[in-house]
Amino acid sequence: MLKLQYRIQLGYRLNLHNPKRYTEKIQLYKMHYRNPELFECVDKYEVRKFVKKKGLGEILNELYGVYDDANEINFSELPNKFVIKTTDGSGGQNILVCEDKTNLDISRTIENVNSWLDKKSINAGREWAYTGIRKSRVIVEKYLENPTQPKAGIQDYKFFCFSGKPYIICVDSDRFIKHKRNIYDSDWNKLDVQFNDYPLVDIIDKRPDNWKEMLTVVEKMSEDFPFVRVDLYNICGRIYFGELTFYPSSGYCKFVPDNFDFILGNQFDISSFYLSK
């Protein structure tokens, strides 16, 4: 199945015997890396325990509640702005952002959110980490926003980390007005690389003043895994945890130029769970 999906998505034959590309190694990661800690890390509620074990509880967003069913949510007790998501959602799916509760159709919201539950059991991408989620639940969190530019959305810093070392950072900005994505190395040098069809933009994002602190956070979060993407937000100098992702785009990432797939693959040491044949 992975060979078929890979060919359809990327147009290449998947080499599982002598993988060189990052996208190939992610497929092997799905197939062979069996660290049970991943089960906790991909659950958007349980991952909070992992973050606290790393001594980083202060970067967790405020949690209003976790529920087995959206009917359990007491909307009258929620603030005017909040975010609802399922604990097993991925790829930006199964998220409801409420910016004004007075305009929210609560009955339709409950019906919509409940329709998301337990969809991960389908697991079309064969992503092993999600097979350990015991139950799809609903969480409600504080709505994070940039007070200086609330309509643009907050910047999302996605750190691609290999054995505890961040190698590239995707910076997503202006997501609600004109989504931009730039890629930087760990020294904040902008790379001439396009990722998943996001157009290259002729700007350089400002490096956060607490950049070294962000690097320390992601190194702690990623040190136990051959690869993980650590997502953080940084609002007015405060760092917030986003999520941990072990199979970005299910491994079907498109890079321009194509050779960046090999450059990234060279950082991914798979010898701890797979030996090339």
State the main characteristics.
single chain; 277 residues; alpha+beta; Dna Ligase, domain 1; 2 domains; 5-stranded antiparallel β-sheet; 4-stranded antiparallel β-sheet; 7 helices; 11 strands; 22% helix; globular
What does this structure look like?
This protein has 277 residues and is an alpha+beta fold. It has 2 domains: 1-32 and 148-268, no CATH class; 60-144, Dna Ligase, domain 1 (2-Layer Sandwich), CATH 3.30.1490. Helices cover 22% and strands 22% of the residues. It has 7 helices and 11 strands. The protein has helices at residues 2-10, 22-32, 37-42, 47-53, 106-114, 211-222, 260-265, and strands spanning 63-67, 82-86, 95-98, 138-142, 156-162, 165-173, 180-185, 194-195, 227-235, 238-245, 255-256. The protein has a 5-stranded antiparallel β-sheet, with helices on one face. The longest helix has 12 residues, at 211-222. It is globular and about 55 Å long. The mean pLDDT is 92.
Radius of gyration: 19 Å
Order of helices and strands: HHHHEEEHEEEEEHEEEH
Q: Estimate nothing, just give the exact number of structural domains.
A: 2
Put simply, the count of helices is 7
Kindly estimate the percentage of residues that lie in beta strands according to DSSP.
15-25%
Assign a percent range to the helix content: 10-25%
Low-pLDDT sequence parts: none
Mean pLDDT: 92
The strand order across the widest sheet is: 7-6-5-9-10
Biggest sheet overview: 5 strands, antiparallel
* Count of distinct strands: 11
How would you summarize what this structure contains?
With 277 residues, the protein is α+β, with helices and mostly antiparallel strands. It has helices at residues 2-10, 22-32, 37-42, 47-53, 106-114, 211-222, 260-265, and strands spanning 63-67, 82-86, 95-98, 138-142, 156-162, 165-173, 180-185, 194-195, 227-235, 238-245, 255-256.
